Amino acid sequence: MKILDWIDHRLPVITLFRKDLKDYPTPKNLNYFWNFGSLAGITLVIMILSGIFLAMHYTPHVEKAFDSVEQIMREVNGGWLIRYIHMNGASMFFIVVYLHIFRGLYYGSYKNPRELLWILGVIILLLMMASAFMGYVLPWGQMSFWGATVITNLFSAFPGGESIVQWLWGGFSVDNPTLNRFFALHYLFPFLLVGIVILHMVSLHQFGSNNPTGLDAKKKDKIPFHPYYTIKDLFGLAVFLSIYAFFVFFAPNFFGEPDNYIPANPLVTPPHIVPEWYFLPFYAILRSIPSKLGGVLAMFGAVLTLAVIPWLDRHPVRSATYRPIFKKLFWVMAVNAIVLGWVGAKPPEGMYLLIGRMATAYYFFHFIVLYPILTKYEKAKSVPEEIP
Ligand code: HEM
Question: Residue with the nearest Cα to atom 42 of ligand 1?
Fold first, then answer.
């Protein structure tokens, strides 16, 4: 169309979309694990849209927050649906992104030249966690209040910690200023995420996608993104939305904690303070170290370790497909992560504490010790010259 050509000549957005979404040369052999990036992007959009509509009816005040959420559920037209989409969307987002990360770990997608792409991913993960944590505080239920209290108090472990914690709270306890700033930041962070996801895509398209063989795809082994991967991504989206809809309509509180339907009460501590499931592995690491500061450092260290993986695993073969030992250890790590999640939900005593400590030790051992050893000694299977 003439008008579009006129615009594109002056502002080449159409060229950009054509280049990066339509013609984008993509390895021909991607499997379904390559669907999770686009699913994460779509989930981010769903979260932002549902969040904006929730914010239109939510009141960030300690006297009104809980009731405003109940008002959304009962009085606002379609309010229950918007809230359940947003609430369950957080869990779906983490499922998708955790699978996306494990895909990267298995196929060595973090290796040269995709190190920065990977690091941007770790920054995305940190921002997602901060955003989810603050969002959970907003309904001002018992778990919101006590979760916020426990997690903000962790900062008191650092030198001068008392003043850091009071600075975070904006007062002398988790109170109205805390709720207000959490709301402001919870609204802001997803937009920062959009910005970093754009950088993530720019970095991806610089060298193109990795693939299950881990080999650099030659020109003849690439196909245009559209229609081949648009249709595959759409199929994945249909499956994903069906699962998501199942939870929204049939089990909307499956991932939630019943205590959060009790209004926040600073005078009554719930018997078990548990975070949302997606924080449990990190929570287990936090609690498995006997000192508070040590626990906090280990928990943040667990995420930061991910950022340096490209320098811990420098084995020349990318994909686990051709690395027999690395492949087995990948599955050990996957089970280890599930074990950490399981212990994270249990009281930190007896067997649970012991198992949690062993799983924490393995987490760091896996990346910091085993990766460099494998880099040096693992003999890979014979790798084909090009994508078969
Ligand atoms: C909001 C969250 C995220 C979004 C929207 C997102 C989006 C995407 C998309 C669309 C792709 C290309 C399709 C694919 O390979 O699946 C991709 C690739 C990639 N992402 Fe993410 N991502 C997110 C989080 C992360 C995180 C947390 C990490 C790692 C810590 C990560 C690491 C990677 C890597 C290494 C690739 C290249 C994969 C390859 O080509 O094999 N991403 N991402």
Answer: 121
